[in-house]
TrEMBL record:
It comes from the Eukaryota. This is TRNase Z TRZ2, chloroplastic isoform X2. The gene is LOC110772436. Residues 114-315 form the Metallo-beta-lactamase domain. Pfam families: Lactamase_B_2. It comes from Prunus avium (Cherry). Signal peptide: none annotated. InterPro entries: Metallo-B-lactamas, RibonucZ/Hydroxyglut_hydro.
Length: 351
């Protein structure tokens, strides 16, 4: 991943609990504003009407604007929101799990998520962590649980310590080093497991599983009272069944798709994966050299994707919404899964 030191103002200011509310418009000003407003039919005969008509009737324009204003997507029963722009910021939020994947900055919606899963240590994926922890303290929320690859745990602890020292504040969190192959119980019906990904620096993805109990085959012929008797006698009558619900890759090459140990990521209901590059302007080789995926590689590996829905993220900031939509339509024709791009933060060429 290339990091550019261009400093630009944030598109949406962070909202903190200690901000004063914006003062309301004075009564006299409200009156003058009301006087200036006119009913729509007062535009009859205006030379602007043809222009308005063309804009309203332009399906391309209206579709593009609706994409610009879209804040999230609903996939397989999950409301997924957030922002993911290559090299700038990634934070994907799933309120149903009370979690966020990566936290490049600190969107206000992320503050209320109890779990954060960090895939790797690039700033556009971890830079907002101290602010996230501090903001939860300001809101008197319980300390969050933050998951990191084991190889960066000590550095993350140092990062938090530095901010505590500089700011003379206490930053409370439960920092969990969760390695590939390990399982963490988020709640009694939900667990998470990391899986191996391939980026320019150490990285890992995460699969969240729903947990349910299923009666063992050898007891399925028994009646209710017999099953109850076995249960009271201490016999384990059920198997624990894990169903992969959502998988998040973070930044990675397409190689993770070819690893048989990552099968659960490719059969989860929803796969959230990156497609940093979309066109011939950046080759597959360029994408691989920087630890990223070209959308053509997803097309080539379509046979391995068994997910019901795929959410594409982390597009390069060079693209417009129209570029993204065109590339996704090309991919959709190759996949049985529903393919949706996360375009929050990207501009339309019509904007």
């Amino acid at each position: 991943m290339q990091i550019f030191l261009t400093i630009s103002p944030s598109k949406a200011p962070l909202i903190f609990p200690f901000h004063q509310p914006i003062s309301q418009t004075p009564k006299t000003q409200r009156t003058s504003l009301k006087t200036l407003s006119k009913p729509v039919n007062s535009l009859k005969g205006s030379p602007l009407l043809p222009a308005f008509g063309r804009a309203i009737e332009d399906d391309e324009y209206r579709l593009a604007r609706s994409q610009v204003l879209r804040k999230g997507v609903d996939l397989e029963g999950y409301s997924i929101e957030g922002l993911s722009i290559g090299g700038h910021e990634t934070c994907i939020i799933i309120p149903e799990f009370k979690c966020a994947f990566d936290i490049g900055r600190c969107p206000s919606r992320a503050i209320h998520q109890n779990f954060v899963f960090i895939t790797h240590a690039h700033l556009d994926h971890i830079g907002g962590l101290p602010m996230y922890v501090a903001s939860r303290g300001l809101y008197n929320l319980k300390p969050p649980t933050v998951f990191v690859p084991p190889c960066i745990k000590e550095d993350v602890e140092k990062l938090i310590d530095i901010h505590q020292t500089m700011g003379h504040v206490e930053l409370n969190l439960d920092l969990v080093a969760l390695d590939v192959g390990e399982t963490y119980e988020m709640r009694n019906n939900l667990v998470v497991r990391p899986f191996r990904t391939d980026h320019a620096i150490p990285s890992q993805g995460y699969v969240i599983y729903s947990v349910r109990k299923k009666l063992k085959k050898q007891y399925m012929h028994l009646k209710g009272k017999q099953i109850e008797k076995l249960k009271k006698s201490g016999v384990e009558i059920t198997d624990v069944v894990l169903s992969p619900e959502v998988a998040f890759t973070g930044d990675t090459t397409s190689d993770y798709m070819l690893d048989p140990r990552n099968a659960d990521a490719l059969r989860a209901k929803v796969l959230i994966t990156e497609a940093t590059f979309l066109d011939e302007g950046c080759s597959i080789e360029h994408a691989r050299q920087h630890g990223h995926t070209h959308i053509d590689e997803i097309i080539e590996n379509a046979q391995w994707i068994r997910n019901k829905s795929v959410l594409l993220t982390h597009f390069s900031s060079r693209y417009h919404i129209e570029d993204i939509r065109q590339a996704v339509s090309k991919l959709q024709s190759k996949l049985s899964a529903k393919v949706v791009p996360l375009t929050e933060g990207f501009k339309s060429m019509h904007a």
